[in-house]
Each structure stands twice: as C-alpha cells, then as structure tokens.
Amino acid sequence: MPTNKNQQINNQPKRKKKYFSLLTIVLLICIIELTVSAIQNINKNINFISKIKGLEEKRNEELEKNKQLKSEIENFNSKTNLESIARNNLKMAGENEILLIINKPTEEQLKEANSNNNKNLKNK
Hints:
Strand content: under 5%
Distance between the termini: 152 Å
C-alpha cells in the first residue's frame, strides 16, 4: 500500500502542473483576444474620428456656401440689380429713357455685303 500512496503523491503534482498549464493557456488565449479586440476598437475609433472631422469640414464649407447664396439672393433682389438685368438681358428701358439697339451683322450678312460690293465694283 505504501507504493500506492507514493504514486498518488507523485501524481498530484503532475496533475497540478497539467491543470496550471491548461489554465495558463486559457489565460493567454483570453489576453490575446482582449488585445485583438482592443486594437480593433482603437482602429474603429480612429476611423470614426477622421470621418467626423471630414463631415465637420464639409458642413463648414456648406454653411459658407449657404451664406454666399443668401447674400447673392439679397443682391439679386435689389432694385438696381433688377433694373440692370432688365436693361441688359431683356432689352427694356426705364421711364424717360430711350432704348437704342445696335445689331452686329452676322458672317452671312457680311459675306453677302462683300459679294454685293464686288458685283457693284465690277459693274462700274
């Protein structure tokens, strides 16, 4: 019987070693998993921060564009600007004004005039 007790005593440290080595492996796997997930979370956080900065820049650009458009609308609605559009684009005149329109001849009209002048010169 004493040999059985010796074997049991000798086996207990071996079992404890196996148990602790198994626990060590499990703990290492847990630490690796935690490290990987922490790195992934940090990467996601960095990506979100860069997206937020990009969107804030775009928002600021759009706000600036909005201000410009509002000022253009205010300028467009002014009376002097409406009158200049009416004069220049719509060929309109104000009260006590005379509208004088000078048409520029087209290329066809110039060619026709030149050919008529050449015919007249030949006839004379």
